[in-house]
Amino acid sequence: MKPGVMQDSHLQRAGYQVLQAATGAEALRIVTELRPELVLLDVKLPDINGLEVCRQIKSERSSADIMVLQVSASAGGPADRVQAWRSVQTPT
Question: How high is the pLDDT of residue 44?
């Protein structure tokens, strides 16, 4: 099963429209163009670190209010959790 398929099928059955991005750059393009209500973001992406993608989403006034849920298949330590927390903080 390819990554994201299980989440997609659950969300689609619940009535949500699901869009997939294979890279961080593609995710940022989708966020800019379509302004989704939620971004389910893998921390490990092939081009841009997911934490950086989140930081970019949250740094733009037009997308700062979009909810971002970061996920990872690898267990992260306390330092990883702090970095993830910092990436979702909206600038004041």
Answer: 87
